[in-house]
Every structure is written in C-alpha cells, then in structure tokens.
TrEMBL record:
Occurrences of domain CdaR GGDEF-like (ranges): 302-421
Domain PucR C-terminal helix-turn-helix residue range list: 476-532
Family annotation (Gene3D superfamilies): PucR C-terminal helix-turn-helix domain
Protein name listed in UniProt: Transcriptional regulator
Entries under PANTHER family matching the protein: CARBOHYDRATE DIACID REGULATOR, CONSERVED PROTEIN
InterPro entries attached to this UniProt entry: CdaR-like_regulators, CdaR_GGDEF, PucR_C-HTH_dom, PucR_C-HTH_sf
Amino acid sequence: MDTTLSPPDAAETLGGIPASDILRLLGDLVTVTAPAPDGDLGIRSVGVLDGSLDECPDLLLVIGAAPADWAGLITRSAEGGVRVVVLGPVSGDDRALIGAAGLQAGVCVLERRADVPWLTLSDLIRERIRVADTEQIRGSGVALEDLAGVAESLAEMLGGHVIIEDAKFRVLSYSSSTGQVDRGRDIAILGRRIPDDWLRHLESLGVIDTLLGTDEVVTVEDGPFEARRRLLCSIRAERFLLGVLWVAEGETPLPGDIRERMITAARTAAPFLLRHQEAGFQRRAAQNRQTRLLLDQGTIAQSTAEEYGLSPADRYTVFGLRASPDALLTNLDRNRTVESVALYCQSYRWRAATTTIGHTVYCVLAHDAETSAGRLSDLAAAVGEHVRRALLGRGVQVALSRTVRALQDIPTARGQVDEVLETCSPAKRLTVTSFDDALATIALSRVGQFMTANAIDHPKLERLRAEDQATGSEYTATLTAYLSAFGNVVAAARQLNVHVTTLRYRLKRIQAISGLDFDDPAERLLCELLLR
C-alpha cells in the first residue's frame, strides 16, 4: 500500500478547503461580497471574533461587531492571516465599501443570509473541512484506521523518527527505524507509553503544561538515555487535545523548516486520532456507568477496579469540581472537563477514575497510605486550575473528601464532597476546600436543617423580634453581634459602631424585654444557632 502523503513543499496546502470553494460548498447560505484571491490556500480553522485578533483563524465569523467597524476588522484580520471573513447581512449602502476593503486586503468576504443561524453556518463549515481532510487522506492511500501507516507517512514528511501518542501519553503508533535513535524511544515503544524518566524530564522543563494547553511546537535538545534532539506538539481538534506527536532526530539532521512541518503533520494526524477516539467512546460510557455505581453504592467488580487502576491501593480520596458561580455546564463542557481531569491525572501518574453526575465532575483517586493531605490538596488545586483555563476563565470550585480505606467507603467520601460544594459559597476564581476545612460550616448547616425541620424556635427571641418590628429598634442585631463577639462588649460595640455604654444599655433592655439569661451557656448557644 502506498502511504505517501503530500510532499513537504506542499505542507501549507495539505488539508482544508480552498477559500474559493467555500461558496460552492455552502450553497445559498452565503453570498460573495469580495471574491477569494487567486492561489488562495486551504481553510483549516474556524474562529469567532472575541474582541481580540491576536490569534487569527483561517476563517473568521464576525459576530456582534457593529457594521461601522467591519471594514477596519477586515483589514486587521488580513494582517493576522485570516483568509475568509463572514459577516452578518450587509446593507446595500455598505456593500461597495465592504467589498472594496476585502479586495484591497486580499480577503474573501462572505455575507450570511439573514435567516441562517450562526451556529448552523459554523457547524457546516467545520464539517466541510473535516470531510475534505478525510478525503485527502483517503486519496493518499492511507486508511483512516491505519495509524501505523500514518506514522510512516509522517516520518517521511518530517525527515525523522515518529511516535504518535494519545492524550494520556500512551503510544498508538510509531515509524519503523532502520538506524538506532536512542534507548528512550525503544523503551517507549516496548512499554507502549512514555518512560517515567522522560515524563519527569518534560515536567522539569514545563513541556507537559505547554502540550496540554497550547499548539506550540516544543524542542527538547537532550534527555534521558543520551537522547537525541526531539520536537513535540499537540494534536488537536479545535481546542480539544487528541494526542501528542513526537519526532526524533536520527543520523540525518531534521529539516530546517521542521517546526512548520510539525504543525502540518499534527493537523494531518487529527482525523486518524478522532477515529481512534470514537472507537473508545463506548468503552468510556461503560466506565462512566461503573464509576457512578461506585460513587453511589460503593460496588465495583474486582477485575473492573484493576482495569481502571483503582486496585490494589491502600487509600482512596474523592474530589469534585463545579464551575462557578452558576455551577452550570453544557454537555460538551462536562465531557471535556471529565476528559481534562482524567488526562491531567494520567499525565502525572495518578491512578484515578473520573465521571460526571449532574453538573459535578467527580474523581476517585487511588493512592498509598503515605500520600500526604498536602499532596492531595496540591493535585486538586492543579487540576482545578487546569480545568479553569479550559473553561475560558470561569471560576472553579473544588471539594476534597477525607481519605477512606476501602472502595466500599467511596459513597461516604462522595457525600463529603457534596456537602462541601453545597455549603461553601462559590467564587469567580479557583477555590479548593477540604471536608475538614469546611466542617464547622457543614455542622452548622446540619444543625440549622434539623432545627428548621423540627420547627424549633425560642419565645424569648420572638419577643425581641416583635419589639424590633413594632418600634424600629435594633435589639436582634445587637444580640447577634454580642454573641458573635463571645460576650466581648468592646468588640461588639466596634462592630455595631456604637459606644460601649450604648451597647450595655441595649443589653439591659434586651434582657428586660425578652427575659434572656446571658449567664446561661445553653441559652446563649441556642440563641446563636437560631440567629444564624
């Protein structure tokens, strides 16, 4: 089978669809305001104007900008590398101006039909790009299921030795090698995943965070096992990480334009990894069901626990994540968050099973008895920050359970996570709260629920509230401040912004009106609980 892809000098045009074909593919959903220039290159990426043109896609959907700004946006986007701009309906008076701006900038300008939703249009364009990539790969003679053939083809394109890994650094395919590269590559291939020494080396260089969060091509000049130079980059579909592409320098130096070739190679590999990932969706659905059953009932087959890496283990800890402040995630956000958490844990060698129930993402960690609470908290914070960035800066609330000894105790740990999330206020940033840190708040919440459910009240407090309502006094607020200050009249007066003498007078009136006995600790505690 011929597995040759397009030659390196055609790297820039590999994949995507020419801008001149956009109109034909979209039919009557759009009209042309400024045609595509001759010799236009392939359209691979679609983006939405978000107020910044720092990172420009090939095709830009201008949503929300005022028509008066369109001409300037066309010029600036062309300078950033945009090849096609899609606008909302253009009025007759503005069409000539917009068309001239597009021709001068060398950008194809399309006008969306008024009754066509932006989402429908963007989904259709992305689907056309995906189909074009797939057809081009099929035309090269490489089957979409043939990851081995892809690795061989990319090695030919890149001029080095290739390994393709999934997003959890597991080796999916690799190119054959007639010459020796280094022992690290051999260990990765034989073990079907990146060696621990290499993982620690990449961690020390900050490469893993770069691969997880960006499309940047990273160069590693040396490494464990007397390694030769390597280049790595992520393989993505839109913002979603699919895997990692490695190329190692052999006896022949890598080409001078290797970074540009790596970007093209990563785009070429994406459809193959998508197909591979789709095959794993069914397995993922089964794992979700098993993990939810473990969280709900503490039951899981021993063989399944071993398969998920949860057994054997000395201890287990559960942490949960919610987006804040509204704690609402779309299905897509939830699925990506689950994958992001699982990917992060696997990348840093934590054994974990992750799933989502409602709007909460749960992660069950299996670890040694010696694993400290501080290390668990650090992991939860790092995962929360990783998810926060993936959710475009939305706040993330992370709750951490106590450590339990057995899998059947997981529902107890899950309940602790839920209590933390329900009682602690979310924030517009990252918060990490353990069950023990939130225990006082949780205990008060439980007492409050009990008192409400049993209609517990105190007639003396009711008399005080009635006096406030009848005369406009502030005796209830005064009593609250006094009890919160542990009976310290100076601190309470400062909190109320009144003189100490005034506070003492109010306390005497409170006792006279209500009959409260401030010397009785039980009555003081009851009042404080009811006032809270």
